[in-house]
Design a protein that fits this description.
By secondary structure, the protein is mainly α. The chain has 18 helices and 4 strands. The strands form 2 sheets. The chain has a two-stranded antiparallel ribbon. It has a two-stranded antiparallel ribbon with strand order 3-4.
């Protein structure tokens, strides 16, 4: 029986490692123009079903009864199925819209990754997270190539299909927002390691923190940068005590110097100071009640329109990935008559597309895991989850990043004899 348990743990770990590596390696293939995002959705669904099988086998071998997390996931799947049944476009709700492919089948896969991740022992969680950090390093290196428009790599010219026609880094994610979300999670894991790791590893985590801070800057996504500033400030304050406050002051000065250095070196390309001033002014206008279509790069407009046009579908939602069909097929049009297929806020997106019950259950799942988890044992993973939760207020869920979130959320929601996280 013990051998069977170890084998299932090993297979489960290898499955999650494959998912993380696949999302990073195959998207390189996508970046150079040789693949399709639709293939990513197929692979995720396949491994979602593999994850389900492994999870069921784990429950049987360990003679484990259904728990609250199982019931929550079942309810989320039920909400998604009902949403698809009553969707404006049921086909899109099941398989996802063109270019996104984040339909019900993929979302069910996310849930399966979460459940499987809850079965992983602590020693394997660390290995998986280190592999995730490795993929983050790859993203920043590719982002650096894009940011500085380095055409030839090993004397092979990939200017046309590797260097995206944009000002900032996108990594293999195809979008600076998605890239920044990925790097942000790596950054918070590294930043947390400075405070919770043994002395021998602190310098490694400090170097990784500086590296990922740089990666975040060249992505130039304000929401992710502000998330790091917010969480970073809270982490520093919470870790200050009378015995080592001088070290923390020095560390705070170091962080400020690094931020200032990045701004000084790259501001001509990033326009960070100008954008920051514009955003501060915009916040002031919002507080005064002066909101127009361009506020928040159009986000507030999208949120308002999404919520106002979905009142007829409060219970079931309009259908997963159906936002572009809202209001009887009329897309939400904002600046330059652009049609928006995502709400640019994951919580509004889930509410509008899957209904009120789905978003409430989803928020309950996150709240339950965060409340019950052992923050000391899983401090770095806890920060990764928090970083994603905060930045998702201004970002969208995509199949190249969201699976990582559900995996690390599952790491927080697990329970083992040698690694008791949730009571």
């Amino acid at each position: 029986m013990e051998k069977s348990k170890k084998l299932v743990n090993l297979l489960s770990t290898l499955t999650l490692i494959f998912i993380i590596l696949y999302l990073n390696i195959y998207t390189i293939y996508l970046t150079i123009g040789c693949g399709m995002y639709q293939n990513v959705s197929y692979v995720l669904f396949l491994f979602g079903m593999i994850s389900l099988i492994l999870y069921v086998v784990y429950k049987i071998i360990n003679k484990e009864k259904a728990k609250l997390k199982d019931v929550i996931i079942l309810l989320l799947i039920l909400c998604g199925a009902i949403s698809s049944l009553f969707a404006i476009n049921p086909y899109v709700s099941i398989f996802g819209s063109f270019g996104r492919y984040e339909g019900l089948l993929v979302i069910i896969s996310y849930y399966m990754f979460f459940l499987l991740a809850t079965t992983i022992p602590l020693k394997y969680k660390k290995i998986i997270m280190y592999i995730f950090i490795f993929t983050g390093i790859i993203e920043v290196l590719i982002g650096n190539i894009q940011f500085f428009k380095i055409g030839k790599i090993f004397n092979y010219d990939r200017t046309y299909n590797l260097i995206i026609n944009g000002k900032y880094a996108t990594g293999t994610m195809g979008n600076q927002n998605f890239y920044s979300s990925y790097v942000l999670m790596c950054l918070l894991f590294s930043f947390g390691g400075i405070f919770k790791s043994s002395k021998i590893y602190k310098i490694n985590y400090l170097c990784l923190t500086i590296f990922f801070m740089y990666g975040l800057f060249i992505g130039n996504t304000l929401g992710c940068i502000l998330t790091f500033i917010l969480l970073g400030g809270i982490i520093l304050i919470k870790n200050i005590n009378k015995s080592n406050y001088k070290k923390f002051i020095l560390f705070l000065v170091l962080i400020c110097i690094l931020f200032s250095s990045f701004i000084f070196l790259f501001d001509k390309k990033l326009n960070f100071k100008k954008n920051m001033i514009n955003n501060i002014n915009e916040v002031g206008e919002i507080l005064k009640g002066n909101i127009n279509d361009s506020t928040g790069t159009g986000r507030i407009y999208i949120w308002r329109k999404s919520l106002s046009m979905s009142y007829k579908h409060i219970l079931t939602g309009i259908g997963i990935d159906n936002l572009i069909y809202i209001d009887s097929g009329k897309c939400i049009k904002g600046l330059k008559a652009t049609c928006f297929d995502k709400a640019h806020n994951e919580y509004i997106q889930k509410y509008v597309t899957e209904g009120i019950f789905s978003i409430l259950i989803y928020l309950f799942l996150i709240g339950y895991v965060l409340k019950k988890c052992n923050k000391e044992t899983h401090y770095q993973i806890y920060l990764v989850v928090l970083s994603y939760i905060i930045q998702s207020t201004f970002n969208i869920s995509v199949i190249t990043v969201a699976p990582i979130f559900y995996i690390v959320l599952g790491f927080l929601g697990g329970r083992h004899e040698e690694d008791i996280i949730c009571s």
